[in-house]
Amino acid sequence: MAQGKKLVIVESPTKMRSIQGYLGDGYEVLSSVGHIRDLADKKDIPAADKQAYGKYSIDVDNDFDPYYVVSDRKTKTVAELKRALKTADELLLATDEDREGEAIAWHLLETLKPKIPVKRMVFHEITKDAIQAAVGKTRELDIDLVDAQETRRILDRLYGWDVSPVLWYKVKTGLSAGRVQSAATRMIVDRERERMAFVSAEYWDVEALASSTSGFKVRLVRVDGGQLARGTDFDDLGTLKKAVVVLDEKKAASLAAAVDAAGAGTVTKVEAKPGTRSPYAPFTTSTMQQEAGRKLSMSAKQAMSVAQRLYEKGYITYMRTDSTALSTQAVQAARSQAVSLYGDGAVPLKPRVYKSKSKNAQEAHEAIRPSGENFRTPSSVSSELDREEHRLYDLIWKRTVASQMADAKYETTTVTIAVDAAGQNAEFTASGTVYTFKGFLEAYEEGRDEKRNSQDTSDDQSLPAVAVGDELGITDAEAKGHRTTPKPRYTEASLVKALEEHGIGRPSTFASIIGTVIDRGYATKRGQALVPTWLAFSVVRLLEEHFADLIDYDFTAALEDDLDAIARGEQKRVEWLRSFYYGSDSQVGLRQVVDNLGEIDARALNSTRITDTATLRFGKYGPYLEVANPEAPDEKPRIVNVPEDLAPDELTAVKAQELIDAPVAGDRVLGVNPDNGKVVVVKDGRFGPYVQENEPVADDAAVDEATGEVVEAPKPKRGAKKEAAPKPRTGSLFRSMSVDTIDLDTALQLLNLPRVVGTDPESGDEITAQNGRYGPYLKKGTDSRSLESESQIFDVTLDQALAIYAQPKYGAGSRRAASALAEFEADPVSGKPIRIRDGRFGAYVTDGETNVTIPRGQKPEDITFEIAVQMLADKRAKGPAPKRGARGAAAKKVPAKKVPAKKAPAKKAPAKKPAAKKAPAKKTQTDAEKAAARSAAAKKAAATRAANAAKKSAGS
User: Fold this and answer.
1) Tens digit of each residue's pLDDT (9 = 90 or more) over 10-29
2) Which of 645, 659, 648, 650 is nearest to 613 (CA)?
3) pLDDT tens digits for 372-390?
4) pLDDT per residue over 418-448, tens digit each?
5) Confidence (pTM)
6) Among residues 27, 159, 318, 690, which one is catalytic?
7) Are 428 and 417 in contact (CB under 8 A)?
8) Residue 318 falls in the annotated catalytic set
9) What values do phi and psi take at 726, rounded to 5?
10) Residue 702: what are its φ and ψ, rounded to 5°?
């Protein structure tokens, strides 16, 4: 880098490229690719510091001093930043302007230790004007924001590392607890508990068709002046909350018949009420996640990932914000666009001003909106964005423009019709709404979450002009039965809304929280609904009984308020952490709770009583019913498996008895293999259903005629010697097959796998088709190729197999290009394009040199450019996998430790924190070896930078 350039550090490679183009040659923009350091793992703490920092990587007795280290995957990034810093005359830290971004900037400052002027550069949108304005309007580092982020990180470490082990010992290994994650899990479980306790009530009404010039639907609302029952008139136990008329089926049918017999009714009332609807505020992080879930069926995680890409590409403003405010230029842009699209009357005389409810508004100044002084329409950017980016941009654009438009005006008319039904006065009503001015609805209408008792809501309809006293025909009267419904389960959108209403967590963390709840197995998705597992019930029960305060909604919300107060400089980090961990007059400390847990009955935690004899338990392999014999209480209880897809509220006493009474699935006989005379049976085993070949049934054995199951002979006595029998042939059922429907022919096909497809005429090798751990495939010698479906195993012909082998091997040529699920820009290390491909072992990220499998639980569409870069960097840091047989040799090699950095427990200066102390690294290499390694790395990095500079100059 030329002398005198200014070094700008951002946290994202995409931002790096965008900003570099706006700043020009006088600046060099580099990326830290997120955080460069974090709390140390226990293995990275030197022996001398183990006593103080060994448990949490935090010295709880010394002002909660954290022990930070630069992660292995970031050593190369840090080295590159330090080299660039040597020839810079000014450092601009341009990370996001929120707590996390401020903390990244502080860690960069502590690690790089620059000797040149340092400024904090902040902006809310990545446009040329915004970036150039930000360069001229810098500020000092906000230590209060850094303190708030550091307090949250320490808090989460203390909470998670103290509470999670209790879950491992008493519920299941591998579980985790977190202050927000646990509260969110409790909310999902509490909703399911409400559904389990809910008692549905039945009620009936009558619907009919009224007609004058045109027909419209009417519904019975009163009988002889008495209000007819609706779903909202019942409580959750099915009891009436007020005096209303409840019709049963017989009475409703009788009334319907009487109304049909009357054939006419009189209009007794026509009521017209005008109304207005105001537009919704521009998007905050929370409302954007909710609407993306409702309208676009995006998960919170996916919505944030897409929004991140839009922000970094310069299409929207910063997407982590609690603010609903718009800048003056944004208001003008929205109003101008509304006028140009919908006319002068589309906007009110004065601009609309929205005030944020949050005290902090996530330290950002604006709502999420299209970037720039003039908004680009969705149609104008459609060719520049991928499908998901375009859909979300369209949503944000519509919401922003609509927020500055005029109110919608409407009129709702309600008509009441009286019918003499065999001496009873039956009153029907119908309602219709007509919009006299659509206003903001021309651009946008908010989606809605599922609501209970929605069957009572009348469909909006257009009503003809009628007047009091008009006679209308009444026909097609029909009795309609209804049942009250429980509260709907949370969706990601409604859970985000509930978390925000309770003040639990921050919108920017909701996506990761919900992702963790699902990944840990605490909830599964059924459509859009989040269904808690029995594992979640056990975890929440333990937390409620032994960590009641920590899972309390108000307490969790109060923690967020306190973190906000630290961010505003109103509370001190150390004092607050001391109160949380050790306790104070107003609260019991975490340490006191953990030290005084007492005995925890793991069996009771994992038990839910369903009936007097059946108890639901959660074991190593999932939920099951333990059924006691009331006539022999000392007898070992019977075990009954519970289907994994059965939701907790569906396991009623009736359903439990149905599972208990169901016939036990045994070895169903399918028939005899004509080739060898052996009996073919189908089994439902621990690892799934399969077929097996058994020796013919002995003469003294029997087969149940009703079920086709073999009745087993008595087992031999213990101690008796038994000859080893040959292992029977087996074959797993395909996913599309069922134990109940499989027949003998299909079973024989499975037993005969792998199937010989034919012989390759060129090589003479035999080609076989079979099913494997990763799906169906062909095999020819050592060369295997994937098949598209399991049915092809039986159907694929030799010609088709040869055609598949004629294509390039997966990972090369045209087939490789066709398999790319997503493509990104060049990797900053290798300089080659990053792609996501669908491989035989699942989706993976590659730059052509390094491949990384996408972890289970993550979808390819959730992988952003930044995540892909990080995954590749992590894989490179691990190095190549050891070859088979070399494990012993590899184990002897002691990897070199990096020098961990430790934060000094000193008072903070107003502008920046004191330099972190560095603990001595364990010496595992000689000084000469280290110097040689550093020299080689430096030469390689210098060569890469020179090559990149050459490419850039050649391209210009």
Assistant:
1) 988 888 888 988 888 899 99
2) 659
3) 889 999 999 999 999 999 9
4) 999 999 999 999 999 989 999 999 988 877 6
5) 0.69
6) 318
7) yes
8) yes
9) -65, 145
10) -135, 155
